[in-house]
C-alpha cells in the first residue's frame, strides 16, 4: 500500500519524490528523506561542508599543545588563524564562477580533493611557517560553502529556499563546533594508547583528512547538479544554455546589492569564523579552565548552528510569506544589530558563567544572521547566482581576516577588548543594509517602485535582446514567476507586464 502511494505521489510530482514548481525545484524540505535528487543533494551538501569545517578548525582546540611543540608565539598563532580564513576569500568567488559554468557537484568534489593533502600534511608541520601554510591551504576548503548554497538554491523553490540554505549551511558550520570536541578526544585516545603528546596531536589530523576525502567522493558519485540532471549532460543535450563567463561575471559585479550583502555578511559569518579561531584559547587563558573545558565551551558556540542558522533561514521564509522581501531584509537588519550589541557585552564581562551564557545567546543571533542573509541572496541574481553567492561568501572571509588582523593578532589589544570592538564593528557594518532596494519589492524604508517594475523586468534585465531572441532567458523567466511570493500579501495585486514578457531592459 505504501509503495503504491509513493508511486502515485511521484506521478503527481512529475516523477520526483517531492512536490516541485515549474523549474522542478522542491517546494518542501523533507529532512528525513534521502531521495534523489533534491534531498540527496541536501544531505551531501551539508555533510561535505561539515567535513571541511572540521578540517579547517581542527587545529584551534589543540593550539596549547601545538604552541608548545612548535614554539609558536601569539603572533604566529594569530597569523595562522588569519591564514586559515584568508585563502577562501578569492576562492569563494572562483567557486561561484565554477558553479555557474560547471555545476556544484564537480566544483565541490574537486575542491575538497585538492585541499585534502594539506589536512594530511598538518601532521608534518615542524615550524611556525609550515603550520601557517597548512592552515592556509586547508582553509580553501571552506569555499564549499558556495557550492552548498548554490546547490540548495538550484534544488529548492522560493518558499523554502531560505530554510534549505539555512539548514544546509548551519549543519555544515556545525563542524566548527564539533571539531572543538572531536579533536581533543581523538588526541586523548591516541595519547592513552601510547603515543607521546607531541606525536598524538599529529596523528589526530588523519581523522578529519579521511573524513574530507570520503565526503568528496560521495558528492561526485552520488550527487546531481540540478533536478533534471547534471550540467554537462543538460548542456550537451541542449536543455541548458552554456553561459559565457564574461557575462555571468559582469552581471554579478555590477549588482550593488551583492556588494552590500558581502559587507554585512563579513560581520556575521566573518565573526563566526573569528570566534571559532579564538574562543577556546580565550577561555583557556582568561578564565584558566583546562583544555577539555575550553574545548567544550568553544564547541557550544559552533554547535548552536544545529538550530540557529536554520532558524534564521526559516524565519526569513516565514517573514517573506507575510511581508515579502521587505520582511526578509528587516529581520536580517534587526537580528544582526542585536548580535553586535551582545558581542559588545561579551567582551566586557569578567565572570566565567555569565560570559558563557552571553556567548551562547550571541551565537544564536550571529548565526541566525547568516541564515537570514542567504534567505535574500538567491533573489539578488538568477543568471549570476554562483558568482553572487561566492562574492557574498567571500565577504564573510574578508570580514574574518580583517577582524583577526586588526583586533586579535599580536598584543595590540587584549582579547576581551578585541571582542568588544568586534561588536561595535558588527553594528556599523550592518547599517548599509538601508540602501538595499529591489524595485519590484522595495527595501527597508521604501516600498516597490511606482513605475510598475515586475519580477520579469528585474530578471530579464540580465539578458540582452539577442540572448532573449535565442531563448537563453527562459530559466530566468520561470524563476521570476516563482519569485512572485516575495511580494508578500501584495501577490494578488502586484503589477504584471501590460504587453506580455518584456524583451529587453536596462539593469534595474
UniProtKB/TrEMBL annotation:
A GO BP term here is: nitrate assimilation
Q: Name one GO molecular function term.
A: nitrate transmembrane transporter activity
Membrane topology summary: Multi-pass membrane protein
- On the tree of life, the source organism's domain of life is Eukaryota
Q: Where do the coiled-coil regions begin and end?
A: none
Quick check: keyword S-adenosyl-L-methionine in the entry?
no
Q: Where are the transmembrane segments?
A: 46-65, 106-125, 132-151, 171-191, 203-223, 256-275, 287-307, 327-346, 358-380, 386-407, 419-438
Positions of region (Disordered): 1-24, 480-508
Q: Where would you find this protein in the cell?
A: Endomembrane system
Pfam family name, one: MFS_1
Q: Which UniProt keywords apply?
A: Membrane, Nitrate assimilation, Transmembrane, Transmembrane helix
Q: Which GO terms describe its cellular component?
A: endomembrane system; membrane
**Is Membrane among the key words of this record?**
yes
CDD domains named in the record: MFS_NRT2_like
Domain Major facilitator superfamily (MFS) profile intervals? 41-435
Instruction: List, as start-end ranges, the regions of compositional bias called Polar residues.
Output: 1-20
> What InterPro entries does the record point to?
MFS, MFS_dom, MFS_trans_sf, NO3_transporter
Family recorded in the similarity comment: Belongs to the major facilitator superfamily. Nitrate/nitrite porter (TC 2.A.1.8) family. Belongs to the major facilitator superfamily. Phosphate:H(+) symporter (TC 2.A.1.9) family.
Q: Which PANTHER family match?
A: HIGH-AFFINITY NITRATE TRANSPORTER 2.3 (PTHR23515)
What's the name of the protein?
Major facilitator superfamily (MFS) profile domain-containing protein
Q: What is the organism of origin for this protein?
A: Daucus carota subsp. sativus
Amino acid at each position: 500500500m505504501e509503495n503504491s502511494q509513493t508511486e502515485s505521489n511521484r506521478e503527481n510530482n512529475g516523477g520526483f519524490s517531492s512536490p516541485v514548481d515549474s523549474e522542478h525545484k522542491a517546494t518542501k524540505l523533507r529532512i528525513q528523506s534521502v531521495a534523489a535528487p533534491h534531498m540527496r543533494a541536501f544531505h551531501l551538501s551539508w555533510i561535505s561542508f561539515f567535513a571541511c569545517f572540521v578540517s579547517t578548525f581542527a587545529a584551534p582546540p589543540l593550539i596549547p599543545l601545538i604552541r608548545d611543540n612548535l614554539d609558536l608565539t601569539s603572533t604566529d598563532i594569530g597569523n595562522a588563524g588569519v591564514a586559515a580564513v584568508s585563502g577562501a576569500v578569492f576562492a569563494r568567488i572562483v567557486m561561484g564562477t565554477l558553479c555557474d559554468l560547471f555545476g556544484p557537484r564537480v566544483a565541490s568534489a574537486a575542491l575538497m580533493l585538492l585541499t585534502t593533502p594539506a589536512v594530511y600534511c598538518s601532521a608534518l608541520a615542524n615550524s611556525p611557517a609550515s603550520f601557517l601554510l597548512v592552515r592556509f591551504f586547508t582553509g580553501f576548503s571552506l569555499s564549499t560553502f558556495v557550492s552548498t548554497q548554490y546547490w540548495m538554491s538550484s534544488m529548492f523553490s522560493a518558499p523554502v529556499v531560505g530554510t534549505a540554505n539555512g539548514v544546509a549551511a548551519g549543519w555544515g558550520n556545525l563542524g566548527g563546533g564539533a571539531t572543538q570536541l572531536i579533536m581533543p578526544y581523538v588526541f586523548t585516545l591516541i595519547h592513552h594508547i601510547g603515543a607521546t603528546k607531541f606525536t598524538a596531536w599529529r596523528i589526530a589530523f588523519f581523522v578529519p583528512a579521511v573524513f574530507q576525502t570520503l565526503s568528496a567522493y560521495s558528492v561526485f558519485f552520488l550527487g546531481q547538479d540540478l533536478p533534471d540532471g547534471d550540467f554537462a549532460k543538460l548542456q550537451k543535450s541542449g536543455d541548458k544554455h552554456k553561459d559565457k563567463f564574461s557575462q555571468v561575471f559582469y552581471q554579478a559585479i555590477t549588482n550593488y546589492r551583492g556588494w552590500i550583502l558581502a559587507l554585512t555578511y563579513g560581520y556575521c559569518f566573518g565573526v563566526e569564523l573569528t570566534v571559532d579561531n579564538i574562543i577556546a584559547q580565550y577561555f583557556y587563558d582568561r578564565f584558566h579552565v583546562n583544555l577539555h573545558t575550553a574545548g567544550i565551551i568553544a564547541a557550544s558556540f559552533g554547535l548552536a548552528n544545529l538550530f540557529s542558522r536554520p532558524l534564521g533561514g526559516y524565519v526569513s521564509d516565514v517573514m517573506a510569506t507575510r511581508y515579502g522581501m521587505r520582511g526578509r531584509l528587516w529581520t536580517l537588519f534587526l537580528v544582526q544589530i542585536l548580535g553586535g550589541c551582545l558581542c559588545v557585552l561579551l567582551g566586557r564581562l569578567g565572570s566565567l558563567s555569565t560570559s558563557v551564557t552571553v556567548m551562547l545567546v550571541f551565537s544564536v543571533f550571529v548565526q541566525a544572521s547568516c541564515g537570514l542573509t542567504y534567505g535574500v541572496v538567491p533573489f539578488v541574481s538568477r543568471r549570476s547566482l554562483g558568482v553572487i553567492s561566492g562574492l557574498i561568501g567571500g565577504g564573510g572571509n574578508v570580514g574574518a581576516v580583517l577582524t583577526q588582523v586588526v583586533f586579535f593578532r599580536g598584543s595590540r589589544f587584549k582579547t576581551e577588548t578585541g571582542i568588544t570592538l568586534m561588536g561595535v564593528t558588527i553594528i556599523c557594518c550592518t547599517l548599509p543594509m538601508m540602501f538595499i532596494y529591489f524595485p519590484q519589492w522595495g527595501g527597508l524604508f521604501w516600498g516597490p517602485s511606482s513605475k510598475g517594475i515586475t519580477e520579469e523586468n528585474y530578471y530579464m534585465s540580465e539578458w540582452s535582446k539577442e540572448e532573449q531572441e535565442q531563448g537563453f532567458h527562459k530559466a530566468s523567466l520561470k524563476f521570476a514567476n516563482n519569485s512572485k511570493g516575495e511580494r508578500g500579501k501584495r501577490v494578488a495585486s502586484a503589477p504584471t507586464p501590460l504587453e506580455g514578457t518584456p524583451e529587453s531592459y536596462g539593469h534595474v
